[in-house]
């Protein structure tokens, strides 16, 4: 604690940890201390230099004055060339909270310069203070200040002032140091609040930008899908005409070639539909027709579609009918779409001679449909990724004509859109189980 006055020597009763500075540094030392870049940066970061006085700071300035029985209390911020009264109690009305005062009137500059408590028992007795306007015009004859430390740098001071000389005690200094810590906490809370507000605004802006990008993406995909579907549908139509013999008889080899063209055309249409469907899900543009659905109906429909494909590939199909009383709340077309995706996915990864299963189960509050396969399985560290868009897990089978990794992502989003879910279990070398759960009616 620095002290100036009639007796400039150290006080034996001062608490440990308070640096002794007596008298305050000379003018050049003060200027150099106030202009240190790290200190100025901390002051700017506080956000209170040119901000209106807050009720909390006014209360703390008032508390300082009353606790130490002085007519004046102040929270002052000291810039490189000015002092700002962030809040005060008892100063003349001509110096409102937030007012700037010249550094020449500032006692707090000494406190900031030494970054320690400074006590001046009688300002009229020290040559560095007795000519200050604060002494000659405002009649400040005693000063006690404790530094405000932010990020370890002194940015200002909490101070009390008296209009008569005052022999400040160690208890006075301890009280003011505690109050300066409270002011620092208040400033830190204000900084955190501003940072949260800025972060919230940035997040809101990012969400708005992402939503705009999604809308633009959806609009682009909608236009492109239309432009791509038109020639693809024309290709499919001409293939059908040729297979019907409307352009003349065709050979068996030509039939096989046309079948390959038709398969490629259908595959491309499927990819386009997958991309567009995912965009619709992300935009929330998918409409659901939710109602009471006997689960066996979409299950049987999906099974009928894939059964011939499984037979052609030499894969056994163990499909058990759903109990008649298993009724769910769902969109039947969406359920059928999910099951077709799951069965088609199982077909891709199950070798000839394997088995694909399809069975239903009624469980507490929901019903489940499980699609099992005896394929190569999925590595444990890759299992969670199978539902990510555009992710394909290499399971070691040659899969010409595979998709682009959207089927499972779309299926899970559709399931969740109906209040259900889609999960996966797998053991490498032993196959996989995909479970669709839906709320029961």
From TrEMBL:
Q: Which PROSITE patterns did the record assign?
A: HIS_KIN
Stretches that traverse the bilayer: none
User: Its Enzyme Commission number?
Assistant: 2.7.13.3
UniProt keyword list: Kinase, Phosphoprotein, Transferase, Two-component regulatory system
From what superkingdom does this record's organism come? Answer: Bacteria
Residues covered by the Histidine kinase domain:
223-441
Disordered: annotated segments: 1-23, 420-441
Q: Which GO terms describe its molecular function?
A: phosphorelay sensor kinase activity
Q: Which reaction does it catalyse?
A: ATP + protein L-histidine = ADP + protein N-phospho-L-histidine
PANTHER family listed in its UniProt record: SENSOR HISTIDINE KINASE RCSC, TWO-COMPONENT HISTIDINE KINASE
Name of the protein in its database record? histidine kinase
The species this protein belongs to is: uncultured Gemmatimonadaceae bacterium
């Amino acid at each position: 604690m620095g002290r100036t006055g009639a007796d400039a020597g150290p006080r034996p009763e001062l608490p440990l940890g308070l640096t002794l500075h007596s008298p305050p540094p000379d003018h050049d030392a003060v200027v150099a201390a106030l202009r240190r870049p790290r200190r100025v940066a901390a002051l700017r970061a506080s956000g209170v230099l040119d901000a209106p006085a807050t009720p909390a700071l006014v209360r703390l300035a008032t508390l300082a004055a009353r606790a130490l029985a002085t007519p004046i209390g102040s929270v002052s911020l000291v810039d490189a060339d000015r002092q700002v009264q962030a809040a005060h109690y008892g100063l003349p009305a001509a110096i409102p909270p937030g007012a700037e005062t010249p550094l020449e009137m500032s006692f707090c500059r000494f406190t900031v310069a030494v970054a320690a408590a400074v006590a001046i028992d009688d300002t009229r007795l020290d040559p560095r203070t007795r000519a200050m306007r604060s002494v000659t015009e405002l009649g400040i004859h005693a000063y006690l200040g404790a530094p405000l430390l932010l990020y370890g740098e002194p940015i200002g001071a909490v101070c009390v002032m008296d209009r008569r000389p005052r022999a400040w005690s160690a208890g006075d200094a301890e009280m003011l140091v505690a109050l300066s810590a409270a002011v620092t906490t208040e400033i830190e809370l204000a900084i955190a609040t501003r940072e949260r507000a800025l972060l919230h605004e940035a997040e809101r802006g990012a969400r708005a930008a992402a939503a705009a990008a999604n809308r633009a993406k959806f609009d682009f995909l909608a236009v492109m899908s239309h432009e791509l579907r038109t020639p693809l549908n024309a290709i499919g139509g001409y293939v059908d005409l040729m297979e019907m013999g409307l352009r003349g008889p065709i050979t068996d080899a030509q039939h096989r070639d046309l079948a390959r063209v038709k398969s490629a055309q259908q595959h491309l249409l499927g990819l386009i539909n997958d991309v567009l469907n995912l965009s619709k899900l992300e935009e929330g543009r998918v409409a659901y027709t939710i109602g009471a659905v006997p689960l066996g109906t979409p299950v049987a429909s999906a099974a009928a579609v894939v059964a011939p494909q499984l037979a052609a590939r030499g894969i056994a199909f163990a499909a058990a009918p759903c109990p008649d009383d298993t009724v769910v709340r769902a969109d039947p077309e969406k359920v059928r779409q999910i099951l077709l995706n799951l069965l088609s996915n199982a077909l891709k990864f199950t070798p000839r001679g394997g088995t694909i299963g399809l069975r239903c189960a009624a469980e507490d509050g929901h019903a489940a449909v499980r699609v099992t396969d005896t394929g190569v399985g999925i590595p444990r560290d890759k299992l969670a990724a199978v539902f990510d868009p555009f992710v394909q897990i290499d399971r070691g089978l040659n899969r010409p004509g595979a998709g682009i990794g959207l089927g499972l992502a779309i299926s899970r989003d559709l399931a969740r859109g109906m209040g259900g879910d889609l999960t996966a279990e797998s053991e490498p070398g032993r196959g996989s189980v995909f479970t669709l759960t839906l709320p029961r009616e």
